[in-house]
Amino acid sequence: MLEAFKLQLVNHGFEPQEIEQVCQSAQLIELPTRHILLHQGEVAQEIHFLLEGICHSAYLTDKGKEFSKEFYWENDWIIGFESLIKQQASPYLLESLTSCCLVSLPIATLRKWREEKHSVYLKLIETQLMHKENKERFMLLYSPEERYEIFCTNFPDLLQRLNDYQIAAYLGITPISLSRIKKRATR
């Protein structure tokens, strides 16, 4: 599994010496379905790279509501920047939705790299910024119908791995809206 991780680092533009530095701190972990990696209100001690499986982060309110922050699947980085930069408690919960295989890196190592303005840290920041920018564009420029169509085109395998409630959360719509969109699409 670490070989798959190294290959992904190469694909993200990491140099051989950077890959070795990352792998020296890395720990491979396997998690069952519905395992909480980080409770809302805890300070993160690790960042993760998802090799297999699906994870989900969500904001939980005092009134019992849940708001999806993000879904993560194969080859995604999971980094809580508030915990990393400000050493603050996480404002969201992070859990596995399926059994998962992840590479875990201590956040203390990342903090050290941040202080040194290390190239690994800069590459991680760039990767996350591009992801956030793409997600923002996805949410702002496309209608719910277009977002569903893009999701189906780009992630057909996730249609079988996520339920309609989760897909709706990813798209930023209600499950009822998703049901209507799906009905219109089959006409």
From TrEMBL:
Domain of life: Bacteria
Residues in Cyclic nucleotide-binding domain copies: 30-113
Pfam families in UniProt: cNMP_binding
Record protein name field: Cyclic nucleotide-binding domain-containing protein
Source organism: Vibrio sinaloensis DSM 21326
